[in-house]
Amino acid sequence: MSTRPEQRAGGPAPHDATREGASPPPPVTPGSASSPGAVVRGRWRTFTGSFAQYRVLPAVAGRSYLPITFGARLPITMVPVGVLTLGEVSTGSSAIAGAAAAGAAIGEAVGAPTSGALADRLGQRRVLLVVAGLHVLALVSLLVAAASADPVALVVAAAGVGLTVPQIGPLSRVRWMAMSPRHVRTAFAFEGTADEVGFALGPAVVGITATLVGGSAPVVVAAVLVVGLVTAFALHPSADAVPVRSREERAREREERRAVATRRRREPLVFVPLVGMLAIGTFFGGSNTALTAAAADAGVPTAGGLLAAAMAVGSATTALAVVALPASLGPWRRWAGSAAVLVVGAALMLWAAPGIPLLVLTTVLAGFAVGPLLVTITDVAGRLAPEGGAGLALTLLTSGIVLGVATGSALAGQAAERVGPSAGFGVGVVAAVVLLLLVLVAAATRRPLPPPTA
């Protein structure tokens, strides 16, 4: 009696399904549903199909809303670089230009939550129209101050410009929360992408117009865009979707203020998004300052802006792709995963400096983490905002990121000056670690996040 090779070698005989009356499994062909190629194609179709969710946004808000809300934030993104450019051209002093930019940042940190709170109380349309008018007047006063070359007048005028910046991004998110809560994640992903593209285009518009026309041209362009696009955003019918609290409701709110304060002390999670945005602003400020210093040290000072743009490209790409993440991946998990990637990216930036080619790659990697972080932190803030207070909650995030940028820039500048150009990247690493630790502590509370409400 013959034996099989496996039996002669002492190994087990292979299982023969045909001897037990079972049919052999069908062969796997390249086109079958179970083949590896078909699985990959199926997953790719699922991934690309998730972007079809963006089709619902024009149906919810109207076809004109997306281009209006995107365009209306362009003049806002021109302010920081525009103030710097005008200050440098008019006074010839980088120190005065920097002071003017700092004045604009401080003004926005104060004005953003103020306009958000007023929008909650009085309605977005009324507040935006007034703020847009004041912003145009502030831009005109900035031009007058620049013409006089008076440093004090320039800084004061710049602070007025920052104070009156229309908060398009936060107020647009409030509208989405009111119009369609179930599409908030998709809407916030679009908003995050619009922010990142705007922050990349704004400085580019400033640079082009200042080079072709003159240092005051970007401010004039910003004023024209505010008149046209911010006004269109204010008058858009979507503003009516956000409920406005009546006098009786505001009186009841004043009576409940003490109870609200007590509840906030008991629920520290409401401060998590603000601290998170402060940390991500610190990462932005520290990284941008360090990138500029590293580029200057490498003999290509103009490359600093291009490196920052590389981060914006990575951020915009992943912000748009947030809709492809499974719904089961909640905000805390998205935040933790993105923060972990940011820690790696920030550490690699520190390792790669001052080599420009490697910095480009590591900066893009860090940018991949920034997009989902911005979308998710805003999502968490919207969920934790009290009813009727979403405008204040989301505009406070603007204050957080502005103050964070100022803090990170100052710290990285000192580190680069005292230790070396590469040392500034350490500020970004610390900020990324803070973001990760913050979400781990918040997630450890195991408190479920409520759905977002306007």
UniProtKB/TrEMBL annotation:
Q: Which residues form the Major facilitator superfamily (MFS) profile domain?
A: 269-454
**Localization (cell):** Cell membrane
Question: Which InterPro entries would you find in this protein's record?
Answer: MFS, MFS_dom, MFS_trans_sf
Classify the protein's membrane topology as the record does. Answer: Multi-pass membrane protein
Q: Which GO terms describe its molecular function?
A: transmembrane transporter activity
Q: Which GO terms describe its cellular component?
A: plasma membrane
Q: Which UniProt keywords apply?
A: Membrane, Transmembrane, Transmembrane helix
Q: Where are the transmembrane segments?
A: 127-146, 219-237, 268-286, 306-328, 335-352, 358-377, 389-411, 423-444
Tell me the domain of life: Bacteria
Q: Where do the segments described as Disordered lie?
A: 1-39
Q: What is this protein called?
A: MFS transporter
| Natural source organism | Pseudokineococcus marinus
